[in-house]
Fold these 2 entries.
Entry 1:
Amino acid sequence: MAIAFNETSVPAQSILSGVNRQRLLGLDRVKSDTLLLDRLQLAASAETRLDVATKSLVWLQGLNGKTRLKSNMYTTDLSLTAAHCVLLLPGQPVTLSTDEGACLLYAEVPDAGRLDSGFSTNRPFFTFLDWTRTVVIKSQSDGRKRIELVSPDLSNTAAIRIQMVVYPPGSGAASYHHEVAESSVYVLSGGGKCCANGQSFPVRQGDVIYFADREPHFLNASPDSELRFLVFYAPGVFKTISADPSKVSAWASTGRDINGLAPLGSDAGRRGTGWFLP
């Protein structure tokens, strides 16, 4: 059965002066070490260093506030806001700091080689995105939208796939499951319901939902509320099987960003705007 809870039920732990962590997903909660998911809170003027292990993949998404990200790989500091995410390179430390305080979502695949056989020889890309200026993939049957944040094509790793998903009010998917991949949802805004193995429950901002491999599930947005969430698939290459083949969703690129504008970047149809460094 799916495991669902709200982030407000998870106690925060101080890991450094001015830096608190909530461990949302880990062995103690889902009995799986495929993906770790944390919520990091940085107080005003806080600074912390992330040492990414050589066998790990680490991804960050701004939730609120502004965080500066500094690495010895480049001279320009990057700014993470709610519009930005970044996939870090294995073995490359970064420093996070903020002036007025900020909150981040931290996702880690602790053993990427277990999920991606080419991980040790085919290095993933450092991927920094403004997802609001990145190309949108839209359902052909309704207004649901997806934006690729991490994928084999985008980031050169098969260990994880991460998407930003937007369901307009009243829209939703039919029941389906994934073969070979676990999946986890983090609700950014809005509300609706989730159904897993025939049991339904409401979802709201801050909810975390974990689905095991092959577990049937689907989400719907409330009639009066857009539902926006992140979804993590580990590994990032898998099959999606619909319970009713006649209700399989067809998806296609819109060639536009979430605001209906032409995406930025020289490879706008695929990558939108961002930095991609091998």
Entry 2:
Amino acid sequence: MNVFVTGATGALGRPVSRMLIDTGHHVFALARSSRNELRIREMGAEPVRGDLFETSSVRNAVRNSEAILHLATHIPNSSQAARRQSWRENDRIRIEGTRNLVNLALEFGVSTVIYPGVVFAYRDAGEQWLDSTSPLDRLPILESSFSAEAEVQRFTSAGRRGVVLRMGGFYGPASVTTRELYRAARYGIALFFGPAKAYQPLIWIEDAALAVVDALSRAPAGIYDIVDDEPMQRHELASVLAGIVGRKRLWRPPALLLRIWAGKNAMFLTRSQRVSNRRFKEATGWSPTVDSARLGMKLLAIEP
């Protein structure tokens, strides 16, 4: 299958592209720079020099593709996350970029569009299980992701197959956030904010990538949640991490420090979200190789 991938050099896009190529798919990958072109060629994909906001530059790639995986993001680093303007490029990729891709996909008869959303939009539900049928909280910082989901649903309404995969927080060897987490733990700090018994939805990056590939081949149109089998409470995560770095316990900073560090828009990250992956497993047969962070955190070997 010919597949057009945006964000092919990102944390999710790299393993997705590798898996697609390894299983015989031809990957057209969007490249916005000469450096990205080189990296894409090294992966074995075909670079498409273009811009999501200049649709003429990607028309041929979309025309020759059967599916689009819109994996591009522009997430600001932790030092800039508190500034709302730092999210403008990411918002534009989600809103305008998704709309442009869906328009082209409808024009050229593309059969499938896949977009990775976020599970953090669910309301705090304590110990209750959550899934794509659960109530959402339409926070301004997440509105661009809702807009992207609406475009995918527009694609489905036109008789095509649109799939939204709401992802848990990524962790794994390639994750910048994970490296920051381990670095802080070695200084005795657990960067898990919120109530001790609140659940934190996570997903091993390679398992998230496998979910995208499985969705391409098997998922019916719809919205699914991609998370570990066993969501863990924050005090459990801190305890496991403490053991890994050789400490009896780690200090979990109060949520107020998250507000100071990342701004009020980040406070949704303190919610308890015990999200279930059951619907996606039943639809595709996908199953995470790392069933919980209890195992995943032990698999990591990250240098400070």
